């Protein structure tokens, strides 16, 4: 094949290939149509499974018969004894016939590799986002990109638009720089990920279908009624499913309360739409802040709600009989009809048990947001009598705080939140824990999350820091998720020093 084919040459060859047919010989057996039901299960291991060739057709020469095409090399003698005897008892033969084979069955990558010049590598995969195929073409492909896009449109019926990444993602909101290379110029996506509906404009927000297993993994770690803060939520692939009913270790149908934040105004708009679309408005608070500021905004929201509740309770102490009275007047559900559970108000009174930080390019730099993040809850004078918070702080000496840190990750309910920090690294697996501790210490003003281990001979770094490899992003570069509890001394910095 020539190495200097133009795009026009390739397109012309493609037109010819589409009409190309050739004859190929295949074994077959002709059977009375009424006996097909009996014979098909017996022949299941021998039936031809070639795309583009029909397995069963009418036998024009023997009215009332059907032809079953068989795999190449099948003969009566090659069949197991019992089946061979049955063939002979029924006077059946296996003969050979010529079948007209077209090119419709060729996969997109087969067509592309057949027609691109020899010196141009083939295209072996693309990411599917609803009706969009997203390609990362190499420079050698670019002169042929409209051909490549057209083949994908022709061969993949679910695809209406083909886009190519035009440069590396450098923008703040991690939006893919792209050009449409074939099909409709339409990047408005409507799709489902694990049963959850999402809408978004792929041109203006971040989306990565390769993260779907990670989205599911984290969602399934969450327990019923857990409060979670997703600081870089995008259009909601963690936040929305967490708020919907899902499988979890604690209950078959867990639902979380989620603070979902993203700085990209377009992501924020689609996040709100997706929350509405999946009917979880009562479970998700959407925010459009910088991720660092979002930590403080969430804590301030909680502080204010607790403060308002405590003031109201102070003015109107609860009537001990109120609950009973309400019980008495509640209407009974009609027989046979399941009572609809009342809507659960958003839980503004609990500190999030997880902060999710999926901004792998720079998430570790945002960890400074956790320094003293819970101190406002303690410093607030209105909260002096709030038992939860006072207990959280006063019941813990430094040593109990240490044991607290060492609670294994599976025991979720602890007053101190987990951080799930996604980041990129080139470090070797054995060097990654120390590397992460250093990166975190830079953000924590020198505080090391492993500092308690110096006086603790029973635990190691892996007890307080778990690192999971998520995916390869480039040669020797991987995306990792670091999970650790915010250390007590860090979360309440300021309070503990008496400032
Ligand atoms: C890698 S994406 C992750 C989105 C989503 N969590 C997911 O898994 O698909 C990172 C998101 O962080 C947002 N972002 C970037 N900088 C931010 C910042 N300073 N504060 C808050 N969000 C930010 C981007 O708009 C983007 O949606």
From TrEMBL:
Enzyme Commission designation: 2.1.1.228
Pfam families in alphabetical order: TRM5-TYW2_MTfase, TYW2_N_2
PANTHER family in alphabetical order: TRNA (GUANINE(37)-N1)-METHYLTRANSFERASE, TRNA METHYLTRANSFERASE
Principal subcellular localisation of the protein: mitochondrion
InterPro entries from the UniProt entry: MeTrfase_TRM5/TYW2, SAM-dependent_MTases_sf, TRM5-TYW2-like_MTfase, TRM5/TYW2-like_N, tRNA_Gua_MeTrfase_euk
Record-level GO BP terms: methylation
Protein's recorded name: tRNA (guanine(37)-N1)-methyltransferase
Subunit text: Monomer.
SAM-dependent methyltransferase TRM5/TYW2-type domain segment(s): 126-488
Biased composition (Basic and acidic residues): 322-333
Localisation: Mitochondrion matrix; Nucleus; Cytoplasm
Record keywords, A-Z: Cytoplasm, Methyltransferase, Mitochondrion, Nucleus, S-adenosyl-L-methionine, Transferase, tRNA processing
């Amino acid at each position: 094949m020539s190495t200097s084919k133009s795009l026009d040459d390739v397109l012309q060859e493609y037109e010819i290939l589409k009409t190309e047919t050739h004859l190929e010989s295949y074994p077959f057996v002709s059977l009375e149509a009424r006996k097909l039901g009996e014979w098909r299960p017996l022949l299941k291991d021998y039936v031809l499974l070639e795309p583009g060739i029909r397995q069963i057709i009418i036998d024009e020469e023997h009215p009332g018969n059907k032809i079953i095409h068989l795999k190449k090399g099948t003969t009566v003698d090659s069949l197991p004894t019992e089946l061979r005897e049955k063939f002979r008892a029924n006077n059946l033969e296996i003969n050979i016939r010529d079948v007209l084979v077209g090119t419709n069955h060729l996969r997109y990558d087969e067509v592309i590799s057949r027609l691109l010049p020899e010196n141009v590598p083939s295209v072996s995969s693309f990411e599917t986002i609803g009706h969009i195929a997203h390609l990362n073409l190499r420079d050698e492909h670019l002169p042929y990109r409209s051909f490549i896009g057209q083949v994908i449109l022709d061969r993949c019926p679910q695809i209406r638009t083909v886009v190519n990444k035009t440069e590396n993602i450098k923008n703040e909101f991690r939006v893919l720089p792209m050009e449409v290379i074939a099909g409709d110029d339409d990047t408005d996506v409507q799709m489902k990920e694990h049963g959850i509906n999402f809408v978004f404009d792929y041109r203006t927000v971040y989306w990565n279908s390769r993260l779907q297993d990670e989205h599911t993994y984290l969602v399934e770690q969450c327990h019923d009624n857990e409060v979670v803060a997703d600081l870089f939520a995008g259009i909601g692939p963690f936040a929305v499913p967490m708020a919907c009913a899902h499988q979890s270790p604690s209950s078959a149908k867990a639902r979380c309360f989620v603070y979902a934040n993203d700085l990209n105004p377009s992501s924020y708009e689609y996040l709100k739409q997706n929350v509405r679309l999946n009917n979880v408005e009562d479970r998700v608070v959407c925010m459009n802040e910088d991720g660092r500021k979002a930590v403080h905004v969430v804590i301030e929201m909680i502080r204010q709600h607790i403060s308002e509740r405590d003031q109201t309770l102070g003015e109107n102490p609860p009537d001990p009989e109120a609950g009973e009275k309400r019980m008495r007047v509640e209407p009974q559900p009609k027989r046979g009809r399941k009572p609809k559970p009342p809507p659960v108000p958003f839980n503004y009174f609990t500190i999030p048990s997880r902060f999710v930080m999926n901004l792998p390019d720079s998430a570790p730099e945002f960890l400074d947001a956790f320094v003293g993040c819970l101190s406002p809850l303690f410093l607030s004078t209105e909260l002096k009598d709030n038992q939860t918070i006072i207990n959280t702080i006063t019941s813990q000496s430094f040593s109990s705080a240490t044991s607290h840190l060492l609670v294994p990750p599976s025991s979720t309910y602890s007053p101190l939140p987990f951080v799930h920090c996604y980041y990129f690294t080139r470090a070797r697996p054995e060097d990654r824990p120390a590397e992460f501790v250093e990166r975190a210490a830079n953000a924590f003003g020198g505080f090391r999350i492993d500092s308690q281990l110096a006086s603790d001979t029973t635990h190691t770094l892996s007890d307080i820091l778990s690192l999971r490899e998520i995916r390869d992003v480039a040669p020797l570069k991987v995306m990792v998720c670091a999970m650790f509890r915010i250390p007590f001394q860090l979360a309440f910095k300021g309070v503990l020093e008496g400032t």
